Fold this sequence. Notes:
The complex is a heterodimer of chains A (about 450) and B (about 325).
Chain A: E1 4-14, E2 19-28, E3 31-36, E4 47-51, E5 56-59, E6 61-66, H1 79-88, E7 91-96, H2 107-120, E8 124-127, H3 143-149, H4 164-177, E9 181-183, H5 188-191, E10 196-197, H6 200-205, E11 209-210, H7 212-229, E12 233-235, H8 241-253, E13 257-261, H9 263-267, H10 271-274, H11 299-311, E14 316-317, H12 326-329, H13 346-355, H14 361-368, H15 370-376, E15 394-404, E16 423-433, E17 436-440, E18 445-449
Parallel strand pairs in A: 1-4, 1-5, 6-7, 7-8, 9-12, 10-11, 12-13, 13-14
Antiparallel strand pairs in A: 1-2, 2-3, 4-18, 5-15, 15-16, 16-17
Chain B: E1 3-6, H1 38-55, E2 69-74, H2 80-91, E3 95-99, H3 112-121, E4 126-131, H4 136-143, E5 147-153, H5 159-172, E6 180-184, H6 191-203, E7 206-210, H7 220-226, E8 232-234, H8 238-242, E9 247-250, H9 256-259, H10 266-273, H11 277-280, E10 288-290, H12 303-306, H13 313-336
Parallel strand pairs in B: 2-3, 2-4, 4-5, 6-7, 6-9, 7-8, 9-10
Antiparallel strand pairs in B: 1-3
Amino acid sequence: xxxxxxxxxxxxxxxxxxxDKVGDLLISDGEIAWFGDKGKVPSQSDLVxxxxxxxxxxPGFIDLHCHLREPGFEDKETIGSGTRAAARGGFxxxxxxxxxxxxxxTRASVDYVRKASEMDGVVRVLPIGCITKGRRGKELAEMNDxxxxxxIGFSDDxxxxxxxxxxxxxxxxxxxxxxxxIDHCEDKELxxxxxxxEGWVSARLxxxxxxxxxxxxxxxxxxxxxxxxxxxxxxxxxxxxGSVELLxxxxxxGVPVTAEVTPHHLTLTEERVMWPQHGExxxxxxxxxxxxxxxxxxxxxxxxxxxxxxxxxxxAIATDHAPHxxxxxxxxxxxxAFGISGFETTFGCLMSLVHEDKLSLNTLVARxxxxxxxxxxxxxxxxxxxxxxxxxxxxxxxPGGEWVVSSQGFISKGKNTPFEGCQFKGKVVATxxxxxxxxxxxxxxxxxxx
Amino acid sequence: METVESTTHGAIISxxxxxxxxxxxxxxxxxxxxxxxxxxxxxxxxxxxxxxxxLSREVKQVxxxxxxxxxxxxxxxxxxxxxxxxxxxxxxxxxxxSLDAAKSSVSKGESLVDNLRTIQALxxxxxxxxxxxxxxxxxxxxxxxxxxxxxxxxxxxHPSQALxxxxxxxxxxxxxxxxxxxxxxDIMHSRVARSNIWGMNIMGATVVLCGPPTLxxxxxxEFIERCQxxxxxxxxxxxxxxxxxxxxxxxxLQLERQQSGLLPSIREYIQRYQLTERRLSLAKPYALVMHxxxxxxxxxxxxxxxxxxxxVIEEQVSNGVAIRMALxxxxxxxxxx
Lengths: 450, 337
């Protein structure tokens, strides 16, 4: 590995610093060293040059929400396979959810994930700890211990804390630790075994519905609790127009809340469950690859989420990468696992919003970098920026690069994607973590200068 | 896998049987009526008429599907639908294998797809499938070449039932497009209602859906609108739904609906939704009373009406065999031509 890496001639977008200009970026000793006009780099020895003409160079993407499945579900994903898939998707930092087996509710299990990530991970892995012991919603986990072990927030993702009292106590406790409650909002009693968005498609398909109120009642409750306790609350995978409205009002009031949205909730609707992605075949699909929680919602919800993302009511895009085995998905819709393997399709599918003029390229990059970095905080140094002296986490993408999704080619063990066969325009071509190239597309030209 | 083997005794043919031409038929599987044309429904009825004639003979069997194998796979308990399909298969001289799948491979951890592939490998020509999960037969058709007939999937569809219902109506009342058909009861969980909505809409009948508010699926009106089911309406008031109806179709109330809190009590359901003489008098004087069965007598309908002059409930069962013979013929006969 060369000591110095020069990314030459790319369009450098760093939303945190308001940069958007063509130039050269020099990385030395794993840190951002210099930025300036093309060809003006101070002379260096032992230099590797990446030709970036026509490419966009930006801070590495940060994913606030993914499932690496290790320990416990290594048939679905491992830290090794998951982080390599993340690198391919342009992510240099990923925050992994604690619904492993055992769950990340003790220092020991958090230590395990951090150690395994150092050994097998190719991108930075930041664990999220449980709110309650065993994710059972009864007693608080040792949150102080977890914070010291390095978690960046607390979540019982997938098994949301149903007791308002326990949630309010968790918020009191986390407030003084300075870490957010990362909140999967779902009233499980109301969703009651629901399988997809409740609406005309569920009525037609005869599938039990999950109404928008399943999410919104808990968003409303937890915003009220955040106001009560002063704790930082981060709302996971917002999926409904009503939740966006609740968030907007809470932010206007100054409640310390942030929010994320997933690529699939921004680009797909409930109809994806009913019809195949492609082809003339109009036989009902009951596509288990479109079964996800929260469910894909209506077109009005999608429009409200995009608006919320543009306005900054939603700070970040998070993948909710949820890999599953083929057996978990190749079964009856009602029995299939919830979740989408998202690392490798996130950027491509989001670029469709840019090409459709629904989102600017700069906003997209901001929500994948500076937006998420603000939520992770500075516990692990300054993330999501190309400032000189910062760790050189950099992503290069070709905004016009066309490719077709083929799950068999995924690095992730989870081939469960609703985007199979989609033609995307926009491709991550290189991912650099601490100055090391961890993913490189064959199209990228690299030369050495001595 | 537990199987019940049955051999076809060399069919005894009495009298000629020449099935009609299949010009308009374009289905490989029968999954629901949402993709049926009016002509296809008409063809099913035309063949069912011929099959009814066979069933009225002394020897109720023709060799039409001799050498074909029909497998009934029931992942959910059923008596009448299963018996109806098996009788239909035998009347066409097909070999039948009957799998009580609820008890067999599934409990040994075999997936549905593997289970179905095994059956296909054994040489089934048609798989007749009942499953508690909506959409299960659609999954089957993604992985199988064998023709699949949906004998009921979850809350979603039960096309042979809807066809026999419409066939029964047609035998009594002429122009379907002039009829007002009230479907009463647990619409939310009813595959019978969902398939009838499509089938009756194709035939142009006005369909009025009515049931307790907790047993109506949310999104129903938008479903009707989006799918352009222009002749289907939702009417919350039972009396208004029955007013002037030509046909009253009652749905079975699963008693566990009350246990899961969807109804305050069965008593209140009876008071509010049971078809009584007084309520029946709101409909046309000749109105047909139908029920897919099994009937909870004294709950959905009073025993007097269930067995009364306007009831065609038993006739639905008999017509079911002819309709299922027609479907098996259309689906299994297609290959050999």
